[in-house]
Amino acid sequence: MNTQLLAPLTTTGVGGPAGIFIRADTEERITAALSAADAAGEDLLIVAGGSNLLIDDAGYAGTVLQIANRGVVIGKELSDGRIRVDIAAGHPWDDAVAQTLAAGLSGLEALSGIPGSAGATPVQNVGAYGSEVAHTFLEAKVYERATGRTTYFGNAGLGFGYRDSLLKRSTTNGSPQYVVLEVSFALQRSNISAPIRYQELAKSLDVEVGQGADASAVRTTVLGLRASKGMVLDAADRDTYSTGSFFTNPIVPAEVLGSLPEGTPNFPVDTPGKVKLSAAWLIDRAGFAKGYGLEGTDGEALAAGRASLSTKHTLAITNRGDATSADILAIARAVRAGVQTRFGIELHNEPLLIGCAL
């Protein structure tokens, strides 16, 4: 137990000190730390991979618990023929994806390269390239802080939505009611991927949307696509020092399309009468180019070049070396205001904001 700066624990590299810092690497240590903090009435922030988190420069005055348990267990065949895989909440997500593919299991390959820990994936219903956690999720083992007991939530029980779940909805300022200890997935014993649902990925693989492909090839292709957008962590590439996508893709009533330019990209969603728009397209068409905020660009005055949109992808706001949370938020506010002015659509942040607000 010790105090430490939180910046090194996040993929953005921003954040002040923790009042108390605890790193717990087993379920027993995690639950003991949670029980002690709750008994003492301490404010509690949970971190693991730190990839979807922006922490204020003042830090967090309460207890910060880093979930650091590890392990992937390839389990038994389920009644429907799929294979159960249990992953410790603190296990690096992309490592787990690679391990399942090495074991001859498919289903997670399109989620390759996503930074952070396995336990965070159901919270946000993490998704990319037409795939999302809900497609293969089996159950989560969680610690319920209100009762001090361990319980389980199945797929239906988590009420998954677009970048949303019961776990997220029951979290307040980084302090969850349910703390994920382990996640389980049901995967296919096959070298063929799940059906490709995303046009860009299908084109790169030279298959039709809806077809499968070699699962390892899907992983390799996804990693390449993500790297080209600065979405795979690389210590030498400042474009990767971000929370990932800073804004979610807006889901709006279908009639809103009538007020948008002809040809505005839109995608179907499960909710009748709604469509999903591309936040990246809106940002770009509102006049915010890749690299906005760097020296020599229109947005330089916002953060003196310390923070900017990625030079590869307009959805990521990046720390160029010594940015503060205020710098990151200055870029975010300018982008949000510009999209609102141009299109009348309000963008919402995807990362959790701790001690700060958009």
UniProtKB/TrEMBL annotation:
Q: Which domain of life is it from?
A: Bacteria
Keyword list, A-Z? Cell cycle, Cell division, Cell shape, Cell wall biogenesis/degradation, Cytoplasm, FAD, Flavoprotein, NADP, Oxidoreductase, Peptidoglycan synthesis
Name one process (GO BP) from the record: cell division
Tell me where in this chain the FAD-binding PCMH-type domain is found: 13-190
Molecular functions per Gene Ontology: FAD binding; UDP-N-acetylmuramate dehydrogenase activity
An example of a Gene Ontology cellular component annotation for this protein is: cytosol
Q: Which parts pass through the membrane?
A: none
Alphabetical list of InterPro entries matching this protein: FAD-bd_PCMH, FAD-bd_PCMH-like_sf, FAD-bd_PCMH_sub1, FAD-bd_PCMH_sub2, MurB, MurB_C, MurB_C_sf, Oxid_FAD_bind_N
Q: What is its EC number?
A: 1.3.1.98
Give the positions the UniProt entry annotates as the active site. 163, 245, 350
What sort of enzyme, by top EC class, is this?
A: oxidoreductase
Which cofactors does it use?
Answer: FAD
Subcellular localization, per the record?
Answer: Cytoplasm
> Pathway, per Swiss-Prot/TrEMBL?
Cell wall biogenesis; peptidoglycan biosynthesis
Q: Which reaction does it catalyse?
A: UDP-N-acetyl-alpha-D-muramate + NADP(+) = UDP-N-acetyl-3-O-(1-carboxyvinyl)-alpha-D-glucosamine + NADPH + H(+)
Q: What's this protein's function?
A: Cell wall formation.
**Family assignment from sequence similarity:** Belongs to the MurB family.
Q: What is this protein called?
A: UDP-N-acetylenolpyruvoylglucosamine reductase
Give the organism, scientific name.
Answer: Paeniglutamicibacter gangotriensis Lz1y
Q: What is the lineage of its organism?
A: Bacteria, Bacillati, Actinomycetota, Actinomycetes, Micrococcales
